[in-house]
């Protein structure tokens, strides 16, 4: 077997020489995981409340996932979408039952799922003869991905500016001003794209008022609603999809992250009306929905449907209560936002940076988004004891913050 470097310095030196430097990585080398814990090459243990950015939904080295993938790998991994295989329709059927959206297209990442949603929304109007109905309305603070289409619908100017010109016909509106929808959504808008809880933007759940206004605007104009549930969906908040908590009825939904529990799997779910407007050849993918990916999604959906969702309801409220207790005692926390196992801790000044660093020194992985927000996205399988351990470490870190 090829020898792999394990010393942190060696790994860093090789990457510095051979990898595109787009990430400022934390200087830890992980090579093993177990449940909610990661272990570095020196066998130091970290409680992982990042879970690979919301991906390791079943924790690390989940035995059921490992054996299913191993078994699948010995049978068949990939055939392309030229042929049938037994797993893709089965995953589609399960996602339809969870979401109420009867048709699925499988891809490999979140950004591809968003791209597909927008393509399908455009195609829907094109098929109906409304070829100039192309505008997409998106929300300020939105993050939808890094490829050209989804980057065009991502708010953060520093992500966008170096790559302009981006897709034309994208309008950003404030997610806190329902009245903005009246003027923004007209008969030239193909779709409005929302994250029910904005994740990278700082963990901001949409308000019920805003969601009601979205529904009214869509009903008034026929505009399609696309819900990007890539980060907040698939059980993370204790409900299958956070759109349903907002009484939203999306025509299209983008999924990713948790679905493959670590395997790269994305999905676009859609209504029959949208699906009817799409023809063979309109879209495609080489890898999307291959057997290994679908097998992972089956294992994830098994876990979600057999106690997983109920478990997140319990663990999510334990985390919320524990964070509220921390906020009551630490004035550096200026607000808490989120739902279930997707939590954002808004902090003052540079406290978020120090909290993330302090937690890491004490063996707790958390991450920072939108500057001053500490974000928690633990595995959906995290235990009560592990939640208490995380809260305890956070408490110590907050007590020790430099003033
Ligand atoms: N949409 C949302 C809401 C996300 O949080 C992300 C990733 O963080 C994406 C889209 C892009 O997903 P990916 O990184 O898998 O392309």
* Low-pLDDT windows of residues: none
DSSP summary: helix tally: 14
Q: How many structural domains?
A: 2
Distance between the termini: 51 Å
Any idea what the CATH superfamily of the largest domain is called? Answer: Type I PLP-dependent aspartate aminotransferase-like (Major domain)
Distinct bound molecules:
pyridoxal-5'-phosphate
Biggest sheet details: 7 strands, mixed
Number-wise, the strands total 17
- Which secondary-structure class do the elements indicate? alpha/beta
Look at the structure and give the mean pLDDT.
97
* Highest CATH level, the class of the largest domain: Alpha Beta
What fraction of residues sit in β-strands?
15-25%
- Kindly report the CATH topology of the largest domain: Aspartate Aminotransferase, domain 2
The global form is: globular
């Amino acid at each position: 077997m090829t020898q792999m470097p394990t010393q942190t310095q060696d790994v860093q030196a090789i990457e510095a020489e051979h990898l595109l430097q787009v990430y400022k990585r934390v200087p830890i080398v992980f090579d093993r995981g177990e449940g909610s814990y990661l272990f570095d090459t020196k066998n130091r243990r970290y409680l992982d409340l990042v879970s690979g950015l919301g991906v390791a939904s079943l924790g690390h080295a989940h035995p059921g996932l490992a054996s299913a993938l191993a078994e699948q790998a010995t049978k068949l991994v990939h055939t392309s979408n030229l042929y049938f295989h037994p797993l893709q329709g089965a995953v589609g059927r399960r996602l339809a039952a969870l979401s109420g959206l009867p048709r699925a297209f499988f891809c490999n990442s979140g950004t591809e799922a968003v791209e597909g949603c927008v393509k399908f929304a455009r195609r829907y109007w094109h098929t109906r003869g409304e070829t100039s109905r192309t505008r997409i309305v998106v929300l300020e603070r939105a993050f939808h991905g890094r490829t050209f289409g989804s980057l065009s619908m991502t708010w953060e100017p520093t992500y966008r500016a170096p790559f302009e010109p981006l897709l034309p016909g994208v309008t950003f509106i404030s997610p806190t001003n329902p009245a903005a929808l009246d003027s923004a959504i007209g008969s030239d808008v193909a779709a409005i794209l929302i994250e029910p809880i904005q994740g990278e933007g700082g963990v901001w759940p949409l308000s019920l008022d805003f969601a009601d206004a979205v529904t009214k605007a869509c009903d008034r104009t026929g505009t399609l609603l696309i819900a990007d549930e890539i980060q907040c969906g698939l059980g993370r908040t204790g409900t299958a999809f956070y759109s349903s908590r907002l009484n939203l009825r999306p025509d299209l939904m983008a999924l990713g992250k948790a679905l493959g529990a670590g395997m790269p799997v994305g999905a676009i779910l859609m209504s029959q009306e949208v699906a009817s407007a799409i023809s063979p050849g309109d879209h495609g993918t080489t890898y999307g929905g291959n057997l290994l990916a679908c097998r992972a999604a089956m294992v994830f959906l098994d876990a979600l449907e057999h106690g997983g969702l109920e478990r997140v309801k319990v663990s999510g409220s334990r985390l919320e209560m524990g964070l509220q207790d921390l906020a009551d005692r630490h004035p550096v926390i200026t607000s808490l936002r989120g739902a279930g196992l997707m939590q954002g801790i808004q902090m003052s000044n540079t406290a978020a940076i120090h909290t993330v660093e302090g937690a890491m020194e004490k063996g707790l992985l958390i991450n920072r988004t939108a500057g001053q927000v500490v974000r928690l996205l633990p595995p959906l399988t995290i235990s009560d004891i592990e939640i208490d351990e995380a809260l305890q470490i956070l408490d110590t870190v907050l007590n020790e913050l430099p003033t």
